[in-house]
Every structure is written in structure tokens, then in C-alpha cells.
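G.,

No rush on this.
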Amino acid sequence: MQTIPVDVGRLGSLMCVVPPEPRTDRETGQPRTDRDGNPVWVVGVSVRQQESRRADVIEVAIPGEPLGISEGMRVALSDLVAVAWEIDGRKGTSFRATGISAEGARGPAVSAQTSRGKSAGQGAES
């Protein structure tokens, strides 16, 4: 899989449109974890391009439960990457970030578990 860093400064306005929810395995329904054992959460983020009226919604995987993030809130993403994938002839792009916070807040909004010494976001599965 190819990982591509995303310059969030060039994205324009970011807004939470789907509140955080745990990412689960489709077959077993069990919560998914990253390589460090942190539960993976998914947040739907609307991205409005700076020079146009066009907006897209992306699902961003975050390690640990994002605290204080709700629908309609402007947000900031830390260390956003795009991951190109291909499975069984299907191709796509998924997105991961090491954290998400309310716009203007200090630091990413993640669970206490992730902030206690684990390397947030390193190897998050999406």
C-alpha cells in the first residue's frame, strides 16, 4: 500500500459530518485495532476546497476514541495521510490521521489510552 502525506493546510474548511464511531470487522463485528492495539475510530469529515464551492466527504480513521468531537463541528486533523489500496480487483483510497481536534483547540482529541505513551497513529489499520 502506498501512503501519501496530505497537506491539510491546502484543504480548506474541514467539518465533522458523521460523529466518531468504532471501526468494526465486517465479518465478526468485533472492534478493529491498529498495530499498537489502539481501537480504530472513524470520523466522516467534509472537506471544502478553498477556491470552489465543491465539498467532498472522507472517512478518516483515528487511533483511539476521539473525545469532544460532534457533528457540525469544525475540526483539524493531525498527520493526515491517504492510503491507496487494492483488494480483490477493487481499488480505492482510505484516509488516516494521528488525531482530530476541534478547530482552534490544542492537540488532538483522542482517548486517554492513546495519549498515555503509545505512538498514536503509527500503523493504524483502515
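When you get to it, here's the other one too:
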Amino acid sequence: MEDKPIDVGRLGVIRCLIAPEPRTTLEGDQRRDREGNPLWITGLVVRQQERRRLEEIHVTTSGQPQGLTEGGEVKVTNLWARDWALEGRTGTTYRADSITPVTGSGGGSAPAAGPRGKSAGDS
């Protein structure tokens, strides 16, 4: 399968749907890239220009995105997609170099999630 770059300029508004969480193995260990950097996964919602429909995508980054709030507008740098097929299942994986907050986007006020999706106040 080959990587397909995505022109984020054509996507319209991108917002953080689910704050960054560690991307983990089935055993619960945090996944790492080839250089050994920890991988994080962030849920984003995209509303394409001139369309009413929203698309939810989960984007993996090396290193934890900082300063994101659920509902806040974000900027995604070097987004690409790769289709996959495994044991009769298919899907698309999304990766990006970085996800950063858009200053003054007026997003939601939900706290950033910690490990395993818990906010700092959860026990």
C-alpha cells in the first residue's frame, strides 16, 4: 500500500474531537515509531468546505500534540493516508507530522486527556 498525501487546505475546518491519547498495543504498551518516539492518536473532525457532512478521522503523530482542547480548531501538518487490508478487514490509517491548536479558535473547554483517555481529574 502506498502513502497518499492529503491537501489539508481543501478540507475546510478541522477540530479536535478527542484529545491526544497514547497509541497502544493490545497488551497496553505504548507504540513507538522506527526512531523509538512514542506514538499518539488524536480524534479529529473535518467539515469540508461547501458540505454539511462531517468526517471523523483518527490521526497518529510521533510525540504528543500540545495545547489541544476538544472542540478547538487545529492545524494539521503533512497529513497522509494509507489504506490497509488484514485478515479480511480493511481501513485507512492517517498520520501527520504535527497537530497544533489554531490560536483564538474559541474551541471547547474540555481538559486534555491523559494516559488511557482519562483527564487529569479522573481517578
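The chain has one domain: 4-103. The chain is about 0% helix and 40% strand.

Enjoy the weekend,
O.
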